[in-house]
Write a structure and sequence with these properties.
The complex is a heterodimer of chains A (about 280) and B (about 260). With about 280 residues, chain A is of the alpha/beta class. Helices cover about 40% and strands about 20% of the residues of chain A. Chain A folds into 2 domains: about 1-90 and about 170-250, Rossmann fold, CATH 3.40.50.300; about 100-165, no CATH class. In chain A, the strands form 2 sheets. Chain A has a 6-stranded mixed beta sheet with strand order 6-7-8-3-9-10, sandwiched between helices. In chain A, strands 2-1-4-5 form a 4-stranded antiparallel beta sheet, covered by helices on one side. In chain A, strand 1 (about 20-30) and strand 2 form a beta hairpin. The longest helix of chain A is centred in the C-terminal third of the chain and has 34 residues, at about 250-284. Chain B contains 11 helices and no strands. Chain B is globular, with a radius of gyration of 22 Å. Classes of the chains: A alpha/beta (about 280), B mainly alpha (about 260).
Chain lengths: ~280, ~260
C-alpha cells in the first residue's frame, strides 16, 4: 500500500502527517535463510491521531516499533517525523515498551523525573512536572514507593508517565498492556484514552489485541503474517470522548468482527507455520 | 516455641544467632572436657576466652588490629577501584572479553599465595607486599561478577536509555551500573573474602605486621588458647568489614 492510498482511509484530512512510514522494508539474515520481517510497509499518523498497528505474532510489529523508535538502523525505506528522516532515536518520539521497564533502584517520582534529569532540568521543576504526570496516570500518593511495591499495571503507568514527562510529539507504544489481565487492560485503556484526549497526543500503538485496538484507535493498520505487509487500514468511527463502556456497543462488535475476519486468516497462517516448524524440529 | 510475633521481631535473629554461638561454645567445651575432641589440638573455649585479656594486654592487639585493618581497607578499596572498571571494560569490548575472561576465571582459582617469595623480592618484607598480593588475589571475582552483572542487564532498560538518547557514559552511570549492582555486590563480597584471607595469610607467611604475625608467633610458642583468641580478633575485623559493606549496599540499593 502506498502513501497515496493511505490518505484515502478516512484519517483527519487537511492535516499534514506528523509521522510517515514510507515503504519500510527490513530483512534479517542473508541468503536462503533470510527472513523478511517488514515488507514495504507504508502508512502515516496525523497530529493528535491514535493509530494502532495490529497483526498476529511474527508479523514484524516489534521490528516496526524498533525502526520507528530509531533502535534499528539498517532498513530500507523512510521513517519521517515532520518531514525529517529519522536516524536513530528521535527526540520527538517517546517510547513505551512491552516489557516492564521501570528502574527498580528508583522510586516512582525519580523514575518519572528521569528524562528531565537527563535534560538538566532543575530539581524543583522536574519534581513539579513529574508530580503532574504521576497525577495524570492516576498514581498520586505513590510517588515515594519503589516499583517492587507496585502492581504490574501501576508499573506500566509509571513507564507511561516517564515517557510523557518529556512531552514527546509522538507517543510510540509496543503492546504496553500485554502482561496485564483483561480488566486492568480495559481500565488502563480508559486512562490512555483520557490522556491522549487531554494532551491531544499523537499516538502509535503496536498491539496484537483486537479489542484494545478498537477501543483506543482512530485508525487501525492490519498487518499480514510474515512477511509483514499492510493488509488494510480501517477507520474506527466510534464517538469520542471514549471509554471502556464502548466495548458493549454494537458498533464496537461490528469493528471487532470486521477486523477479526482479516486477522483470522493471518493468525491461522502464523499458527500453521509455527506448528510445521515445531514438527520439523521434533523430526530433526 | 517462639510466638509468631516474637519470631518476626528485630531482636529474634540477634538472640537466635547469639544463642547458637553460645550453644556451639558450650557443646565444644563439653566435648573437650569428656575427651571426645583432643585437648592438645583444640583448646577449651573457656581457656580461649580467658586468653583474650592476656593477648590484649601483652600482644598489642589494638595496634595489630589497626595494621591488619589498614591493609584490608586499602586492599578492599583497591579491588573495587580496579576490578569494577576492568569488568566494565570486558563488558564493553567483546574481543577482549573473549580473550581474557577465561584467564581471569583461572586467576580466581590460582593459589597466588604461593608466589609470595616473588613479591618479597619485588616489594620487600613490607605492607606493600601484603596489599599487592591481596589485591591480585581478590581481583578476579569482582571483575567476573561486574562483567556478568553488566551482561545481564535487561535489554529493555538499555532500550529505554537509547530511546532517551543517553550517551555511553550516562548509560553506564545511570542504567548499567545501578542495574548490575546486586551482582557486582556479590562479586565484592567474594573479593573481600579472598582479600581478608589473603591479608592474614600473607602476614602469617612473611611474619610481618598485624594479626597474621601474632597468630604465627602464638602458634610457634604453642599457645593454643592465645592462637584461637587471635583468630577471634581476625573474625572480628572481618565482621566489621562486612557490616560496613552491608551498610554501603543498603544505602546504594534501596529496597527493590
Amino acid at each position: 500500500m502506498t502513501l497515496a492510498s493511505t490518505a484515502t482511509t478516512g484519517a483527519p484530512s487537511g492535516q499534514r502527517p506528523q509521522l510517515v512510514i514510507d515503504k519500510v522494508f527490513k530483512q534479517f539474515g542473508v541468503g536462503p535463510g533470510a527472513v523478511t520481517a517488514v515488507d514495504h510497509v507504508s502508512f502515516d499518523v496525523k497530529p493528535g491521531e491514535f493509530v494502532s498497528v495490529i497483526g498476529p505474532s511474527g508479523c514484524g510489529k516489534s521490528t516496526l516499533f524498533n525502526i520507528i523508535g530509531g533502535l534499528l538502523d539498517e532498513y530500507e525505506g523512510d521513517v519521517l517525523i515532520e518531514r525529517e528522516r529519522i536516524a536513530g532515536p528521535h527526540k520527538a518520539v517517546g517510547m513505551v515498551f512491552q516489557e516492564e521497564s521501570t528502574f527498580p533502584w528508583r522510586n516512582v517520582i525519580d523514575n518519572v523525573a528521569f528524562p528531565l534529569e537527563l535534560q538538566g532540568v532543575n530539581k524543583s521543576e522536574r519534581l513539579d512536572r513529574a508530580h503532574h504526570f504521576i497525577d495524570l496516570v492516576g498514581l498520586k500518593g505513590f510517588e515515594r514507593l519503589m516499583p517492587s511495591a507496585l502492581s504490574g499495571g501501576m508499573r506500566q503507568r509509571v513507564s507511561i508517565a516517564r515517557t510523557l514527562v518529556s512531552q514527546p510529539q509522538i507517543l510510540l507504544m509496543d503492546e504496553p498492556f500485554a502482561a496485564l489481565d483483561e480488566q486492568t487492560r480495559l481500565l488502563l485503556g480508559d486512562k490512555i484514552t483520557q490522556i491522549q484526549q487531554d494532551l491531544n497526543q499523537t499516538t502509535l500503538l503496536i498491539t496484537h489485541n483486537l479489542t484494545e485496538a478498537v477501543q483506543l484507535s482512530d485508525r487501525i493498520v492490519v498487518m499480514t503474517y510474515r512477511p509483514g505487509k499492510v493488509k488494510r487500514i480501517v477507520d474506527i468511527d466510534l464517538p469520542r470522548p471514549r471509554s471502556s463502556d464502548v466495548v458493549s456497543s454494537d458498533a464496537f462488535g461490528h469493528y471487532v468482527a470486521e477486523i477479526w475476519a482479516d486477522l483470522r486468516e493471518e493468525a491461522s497462517r502464523g499458527m500453521a507455520d509455527s506448528e510445521s516448524a515445531r514438527r520439523g524440529g521434533s523430526r530433526g | 516455641m517462639a510466638s509468631p510475633s516474637f519470631s518476626q521481631s528485630r531482636a529474634f535473629p540477634i538472640l537466635l544467632g547469639a544463642s547458637t554461638f553460645i550453644g556451639a561454645f558450650v557443646a565444644l567445651e563439653v566435648l573437650l572436657r569428656y575427651g571426645v575432641v583432643n585437648k592438645y589440638v583444640v583448646p577449651l573455649p573457656s581457656q580461649v576466652l580467658m586468653s583474650l585479656e592476656r593477648i590484649v594486654v601483652e600482644e598489642n592487639i589494638v595496634g595489630r588490629m589497626r595494621d591488619t585493618a589498614w591493609e584490608m581497607f586499602v586492599s578492599c578499596i583497591a579491588v573495587i577501584v580496579l576490578g569494577v572498571p576492568m569488568g566494565a571494560l570486558l563488558y564493553r569490548w567483546q574481543p577482549l572479553r573473549r580473550a581474557l575472561l577465561d584467564w581471569v576465571a583461572a586467576l580466581a582459582a590460582a593459589p597466588l599465595v604461593l608466589a609470595f617469595p616473588l613479591f618479597l623480592v619485588i616489594f620487600g618484607r613490607s605492607a606493600t607486599t601484603v596489599i599487592v598480593m591481596s589485591v591480585i588475589t581478590g581481583l578476579a571475582p569482582i571483575v567476573i561478577k561486574t562483567t556478568e552483572g553488566l551482561l545481564g542487564v535487561r535489554s529493555v532498560l538499555i532500550n529505554v536509555g537509547r530511546s532517551l538518547k543517553m550517551t555511553d557514559a550516562q548509560m553506564l552511570r545511570m542504567i548499567l551500573l545501578p542495574a548490575a549492582l546486586p551482582v557486582i555486590f556479590s562479586g565484592i563480597r567474594l573479593s573481600w573474602t579472598f582479600v581478608l584471607i589473603s591479608v592474614v595469610g600473607i602476614e602469617f607467611l612473611i611474619n610481618l605486621g598485624g594479626l597474621g604475625q601474632l597468630i604465627n608467633d602464638l602458634a610457634e610458642r604453642y599457645d593454643l588458647p592465645g592462637t584461637y583468641g587471635a583468630i577471634g580478633f581476625v573474625i572480628l575485623v572481618s565482621v566489621i568489614f562486612f557490616m560496613l559493606l552491608e551498610r554501603v549496599e543498603s544505602w546504594l540499593r534501596p529496597a527493590r
